[in-house]
């Protein structure tokens, strides 16, 4: 993962953990665990086939065949229509750091398998290190 993404996410997760006396949602604990074991690289070294913050991605539900497109954003940047998904949502937390073509599992309320079908925009690959 991009070291700048990790450096921004860790303190936000720490605030949630302190405020709630731990993580009340399993996907936030899983995200914190993912951040603690991920390989951090500079923004210029992030492979173009990895989902990072502010990436525009298309995912396909492998059960229904439906394709969804959204931008992965920091908390507070999401919208009610689903065009922007917070990294702190269950979907966002499983997708951050995922590789193009990988399949992730989402439990809401039943298990869904989602394939990262396309990364239509990734800030690092586009030289947008300010996002």
From TrEMBL:
InterPro entries: GreA/GreB_C_sf, Tscrpt_elong_fac_GreA/B_C. GO terms for biological process: regulation of DNA-templated transcription elongation. Residues 47-119 form the Transcription elongation factor GreA/GreB C-terminal domain. This is Transcription elongation factor GreA/GreB C-terminal domain-containing protein. Pfam families: GreA_GreB. It comes from Alkalilimnicola ehrlichii. One of its GO terms (molecular function) is DNA binding. Coiled coil: none annotated.
């Amino acid at each position: 993962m991009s070291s700048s993404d990790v450096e921004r996410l860790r303190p936000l997760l720490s605030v949630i953990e302190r405020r709630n006396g731990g993580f009340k949602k399993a996907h936030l604990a899983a995200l914190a665990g993912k951040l603690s074991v991920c390989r951090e690289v500079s923004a210029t070294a992030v492979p173009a086939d990895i989902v990072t913050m502010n990436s525009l991605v298309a995912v396909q539900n492998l059960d229904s065949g439906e394709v969804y497109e959204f931008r992965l954003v920091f908390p507070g940047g999401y919208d009610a229509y689903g065009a922007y998904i917070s990294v702190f949502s269950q979907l966002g937390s499983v997708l951050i750091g995922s590789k193009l073509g990988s399949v992730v599992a989402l439990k809401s309320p039943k298990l869904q398998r989602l394939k990262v079908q396309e990364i239509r925009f990734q800030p690092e690959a586009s030289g947008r290190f300010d996002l």
